[in-house]
Amino acid sequence: MTDKIDTDDIDDVVGDILADVDADETLGKQMATDARRVSAGELSRAEFEDRYAEDVAEEFGTDLTGGTAGASMPGTPSVMDQASRRSVLKAAGVAAVGAAAVGAGVSSNNAAAQSDSGSSVQRGMVLDTETCIKCLSCVEACKEENHTPEGHFWMEVHRYQRADEEYDGPTDCDSLQRPCQHCEDAPCIEVCPNNSRFKTENGRTVCDYDTCLGCKYCEVACPYHVNSFVGTGVPEYLDGPFEGQRRDAEGHWLAGTPPEGSCSKCTFCIHREWDDELRGTTACEEACPVDAIHFGDLNDPESAPNQYLEDYDESETFKARSEVSDPNVIYVGDEPEGVEVEPVPGPTTHQDLGLEESEPTGH
Fold first, then answer.
1. Which of 70, 285, 339, 341 could share a disulfide with 160, CB 3.0–4.6 Å?
2. How many CB atoms lie within 10 A of CB 274?
3. Tens digit of pLDDT for each residue in 301-359?
């Protein structure tokens, strides 16, 4: 363990996150810590696999090195509880799961990630914290678009007051929009014991819901704590299944309301990639009334996010926790890291919009 990256938050949250799942807490903490080290370049992937492959095989019945990566189980129901999901995969064994993948024509997620690595597209966002009016329109739009389970918010706007600034009242505050950062070197990908997390050809970090074990190790490893565990299935207030449910060419279930027993997060509205008119857009960007969200290809100088950055010096922008990973979300404004902050509820709250409160980390 080195001093280069901060893992104190792992110690703070691991117990609460893993309290309600049948997954080894010590193993989860160790793997999450070292997954961040892999992402930061302090530990090689080969060393990580050598260190944990045996423990992962014993705990989950899966092959950390890629033998069971992305192995969709033929006939697996769309909705399973965490225990049954894990027992199906574990009981199948490494060899059987691998054979099932071949029979179903599904390649490993490691292979998918490798084949996508040559793509020149990197979807990402520029978020302007100074322009943001904390109206939560992006939060509401994301909720409606993605039909996330009750208490789960893939986009959130953290509102806070800094100790080094003065404010006019309790609702006068700064903010930080928080989608998934879709990191270039994502700790959640490194830590996943079934290789269910991977990068798409356009740079999104995604999860194959069919093969997710629901172990919640990704929740522990993520420096931004954007993952949430689906413990109650599709919420009753939804009228029906999410029409945007989609699978990629290899059969990975990447879009739609996440099933019970899986971990979920922002996908940059990946289901829109199947729509010619909506491709390259997100619900949160469309809903923002002050143009504080800009989504597009970060590798394209002419894209919306890069054009927006033309008006700002590098000193006026930041990436959150970039020492841990390499996020593909760029913020405009003052970085709050290293400053004491106090969360505040306003000026607009979930209750004001008729939204349920966010569930605490780990639930």
1. 341
2. 13
3. 999 999 999 999 999 999 999 888 899 999 999 998 888 999 998 899 999 999 888 76
Cα 6 to Cα 322: distance, rounded to the nearest angstrom: 11
Share of the chain above pLDDT 90, in %: 59
Q: Is 330 helix (H, G, I), strand (E, B) or coil?
A: strand
Q: Sketch out the chain's domains with CATH numbers.
A: 8-119+186-242 (no CATH), 123-182+273-353 (3.30.70.20)
Distance of CA 221 to the CA centre of its chain: 11
Cα 6 to Cα 17, 321, 358: the distances in Å are 18, 9, 25
Q: For residue 151, what are its two tokens?
A: 């208490």
For the chain, list the strands marked E by DSSP.
123-128, 156-162, 174-178, 197-199, 205-207, 228-229, 246-247, 253-255, 263-264, 293-297, 317-318, 329-332, 341-343
Strand partners, 293: 127
Amino acid code (one letter) for 43: L
* pLDDT tens column, 127-164: 999 999 999 999 999 999 988 888 889 999 999 999 99
- In angstroms, the first-to-last Cα distance of the chain is 28
Nearest Cα residue to 268 out of 165, 127, 149, 163: 127
* 160 touches 343 (CB < 8 A): yes
Taking the C-alpha atoms of residue 311 and residue 305, their distance in angstroms, rounded to an integer, is 11
Give 161's contacts (C-beta < 8 A, 6+ positions apart): 167, 172, 173, 174, 341, 342, 344
The residues facing 253 across adjacent strands are 247
